[in-house]
Model the fold of this input.
Amino acid sequence: MIGILSYLVFFTTIASILAIAVLGLNLQWGNTGLFNGGVVAFFGAGAYGTLLLGGTSQTDHIGGLELFYPIALLGGMIIAGSLAWVVGILTLRLRHDYLAISTFGVAVAFENLMRNAQWLAGGAKGLRGFERPLRETLGDGFLYNLSFLIIVLIILLGVYWFLEILVRSPFGRLLRAIREDEHAARSLGKNPAKIRLTAFVGGSIIMGLAGGLYGTFYAFVSPQDILPMLTFQIWAMLIVGGAGNNKGAIFGAFLIWAAWTSSGWLLSRFAPIEAQLYTGAVQYVLIGLVIVTMLLWRPQGLFPERLVISQPGQS
Amino acid sequence: MIAGYLPDLPILRGVSLTVDAGSLTVIIGPNGAGKSTLIKSIVGLVPFSKGMLLLRGKDVGHIQPHQLAKHGISYVPQSNNIFRSLTVKQNLTLALRHAGKSAPNRLQNLLQQFPQLSVKLHDKAGALSGGQRQFLAVAMALSTSPRIILMDEPSAGLSPKASQEILEMLRHLTSTGVTIILVEQNVNQALRLADHCYILAEGINQIDDKAAKLLRDSIVSEIYLGGKRLKVQQ
Amino acid sequence: MIQHLLDGILFGSILSLGAAGLTMVMHILRFANFSHAELLSIGAYTALVFDQIFKATMPFFSAQVGSLSITWALFLAMAFSLFLTGVSAILFDYLVFRRIREKGDELSMVFASFGLALIIRNLIGLIFGLNTQLYSKDIVFATILSRDPLIALKPDQLVTLLITLLIILVIHFVLSRTTFGYSLRAVGENPELAQVNGINLRTTILLVWFIGGGLAALAGVFYGLNNQITPMIGSDLVLPVFAATIVGGIGSIYGALFGGFIVGIAANIALIILPSGYSPSVPFLIIIAVLLIRPNGLFGESRT
Done:
């Protein structure tokens, strides 16, 4: 019984962390129509940043400033945001697929850097030396994991609540206006480029938050955690859930994560020994199929964006 | 005819046009009246949801843009009506694609008709002056030996002399039996050379009459020289 | 240094062929096709399959051509591969991209292309296995052009380069002297005007996919020939091919051809300074440099 409960806590923690990242992507893609092809880079920047800032000093790489945990987490978010700012400044004024290619390239370069730069973050061995916060008080067991889950859920709800308010605010309307008709928005005196940058950086900061929590949970991060597959998983979550809809984003995260973990379990359980090497490939084909079929059949997702009519006097 | 770029937002709300063979008809009207949309919906670049296209009495349904030549129609858009990155010769060769074996002859004929183009044969079309580009556009339209030419604002951006040349050339073409339909902003010059004129406002016909009569008409001068706003017939 | 230059030119030929097809699709259909690089993979594996078939059924074809490692069987297999990969490209458009395009969303096509790439890449892995394969296990001796500094050139590499140059000449001829070439350039510049001048847009798009697929297949076979055949060919080459299109300017075939060589040479020269682990990042750095200095690339124009 405890085993199942323990697993559920673990599952929900990861799903919630990923849901936070999906919410960040929703701000960029769902609300503003920006295509982030390198979600994992900003997620990873948050993870590595938090662990470097909050971890203990290690001999073979920099970092280890042992900062107070919330500051370390914030630091990770800022690093993610700065990376987004640099990429955004260069690409947001160009045609939309330049952003796709550039962000994809950022992710490739980021993973490449982390894998090779041992002095920076441990290279392929990964980043150690991070102590999970409050470990002395809560220990290493079920109690800790449960408490961590509660914190993550609180953060998730906070991000959700914040984004819901944002969507209904004048800024949210502005984002939709720019997404739908940039010329009209520009004629109203708004600067679309600056606003897009704000949305892009904002979404990336949220992804960095998710990454920081992810790294904290495992107290370890390595280049294996920032492979392109994570980008595809997060997209699949948003596409299935419903781009433009924050509830859909969270739902999609849980649904896809459940599908991923259960398909992984089924494959490893029932596939013959010789085929075990290929279970990953099967899962990747499945995720590709999910993405393509959703886009062909129901591109608005399971929970489409509800049109927010915000004129006074109308419901 | 009811047509527009978005199905729920028609720009044309009730337009009827009848054109005699071998005539020069001009469509004028204020900006946003739907003149360009009318031409585009005839040639199939904009869909029309209600209406009929009768060509020499036969209902031709919705025309596909790449099959215009089959119906004997040529269309010259208002701007970007030649391929700038191709040379004059390449533009004409492209327009003459379906002429097959007679293409070299047709090319020679066109160059005789448009001597100003033959000296610029190997220049990129983007390097030509405004007037020369318009002549090239007309030459391309003529390459399929059309019975009808639809042209959107041929004198746009041209000097008065160049626009006079273009309009006179189009007038001359009608003497060979070609029917010409123009959308024009340059009302005076156009009305002087045209047979018939339609005035479009807010997507609906307003007036149609012989061009010469309209030239002296007080309503036309009111629309185009300021004054009262045209009352829209519902 | 010269060896790096030679290797770079070789890699550049592969990228040029891959980028030429991609740039037209990106320009005319307005989307970054992340599955294009998988066409190179399909090309390489299709040639492998037919090569094995021909070797098995017509043993006299197993003879190598001259001092190359390429057999007659492989040449024949390449022809089949070009055709079938071109057809696959048309098929993918028909099954996936066209329907999404008709719904009007360009960015969804980019998403879908990612998904499609995942499917193709991993299906190839499932069908052919994850290990590396080669067209020929025979050892081919390189010609030593100079001993100090060491410059060596394999006959396969020379053939790759020569065939690529030949294709580039053919492409140039088609674009500058044939009506078909004019119609391709016309569609790239102004699709509406092209239509009213009698060009059937759908047919042109089909041809662009087919030709792009064929060129990609050739590039894939050359890559497999000069390196190895693995299911990762697509994911290894997707960023460099994109970099080539961006350097050359999206929509310009000449740009893509030129850009391929620039990226190939730069990626190899960079190995002089950077440790080899970083070479996947070089195309990205090139993209950033282009975006900083000249976003439209060498020959690109922003679309009207």
